[in-house]
Amino acid sequence: MNIATRLRRIGLPRLIVHASVLFIVLLWLLPTLGILVSSLRDKDQIVVSGWWTAFSSSNQTQALRLGDPSTQTQQGDRFVIAGNVFGEGKSGHVSAYGVRVQEPAAFKAGTSADLGDGETLQLNEDGSYQYSKNASFEGSRAKRVYVVVSTPPIFTLDNYRTVLLSEGIGQSFVNSLTVAIPATIIPILIAAFAAYALSWMRFSGRSLMIALVVGLIVVPLQMSLIPLLQLYNSIGNIFGIPSKTYAGIWLAHTAFGLPLAIYLLRNYISGLPKEIIESARVDGASDFEIFVKIVLPLSFPALASFAIFQFLWTWNDLLVAMVFLGTQKDELVLTGALNALLGSRGGNWEILTASAFVTIIVPLCVFFALQRYLVRGLLAGSVKGG
């Protein structure tokens, strides 16, 4: 079966959809790929060329000085200074050179340049040069030349070593994990219990509670943040609890994540087959046993789909972390540390790109580990209802 026949069997609409999805995926992957490549490049090469040129040689213009006049030798009626612009033990590839900053590539490497007043200069590709003059160089300064150096691509892990060991990102990484993991597990556990109760247990005020949960979904975080902080501080003053603790930020993320978690899980759990629940009750199972042994295993797609979103929200959060945890260096989460780097190291792109990739690597791992449950859990939680 040739390609044309396969395309006809797929159909033009489906082909357009597949092509569009592929284009969107590639468009989203490009920034991530750029951050990854830049984070592994040498800092000097990041400044002079884009990440898409990382696998080819790059040209850099360097201002260097020729040998000291005291090293001159006389050859016939001319005085000569010879050497290598890269210095002893160093090497490079020169593509062009010049003696004026306005024309750093005026002469091709390997050619002899007439500088006037009886001066000539020949600079070769390996950096060796011969600078001659029809008079002595004594009393003059070492001549400055501008060299266009072609350097091969350089990749290094030094950027990550600097970020993790010297910039405080390592501690912030641990802080983010300490915040995100409990702030993901706690609301899921509470929401799962609440969702089962609102789905399969009969009690007065159940419909009102469901309506209240739905209404809380639309409450903006920014509107409730300050009242929640004041309430937390008031309770902390009564019981002598410090205001800046991990417990505070866990409770804050739990409060903001619970309404959506209960809504999604309740819709999913209420759509489970009624016969399974009734059969378990006939066999004498309690509500807790039904929840643990039947409902939780069957609800794993919904639990996993919400866990992805909750983890991403808490991992990428900056506002709640700054309010409930603080802004000291040892208190900053990863987003806060990266924000501080943007202010203090804004010109060090190798530091920023390495920090950014450290920030996104954990959410990527979580997403790819649970993504097969994402669509199934969200569709069931959004469509089914009871």
From TrEMBL:
Cellular component terms (Gene Ontology): plasma membrane
Annotated compartments: Cell membrane
Family: Belongs to the binding-protein-dependent transport system permease family.
Bilayer topology term: Multi-pass membrane protein
Chain segments annotated as transmembrane: 12-30, 173-196, 208-229, 249-269, 290-313, 351-370
First and last residue of the signal peptide: none
Gene3D superfamilies on file: MetI-like
Domain ABC transmembrane type-1 as annotated: residue spans: 173-370
Lineage of the species this protein comes from: Bacteria, Pseudomonadati, Pseudomonadota, Alphaproteobacteria, Hyphomicrobiales
Record key words, sorted: Cell membrane, Membrane, Transmembrane, Transmembrane helix, Transport
A biological process term (GO) from this entry: transmembrane transport
Name of the protein in its database record: Alpha-glucoside ABC transporter permease
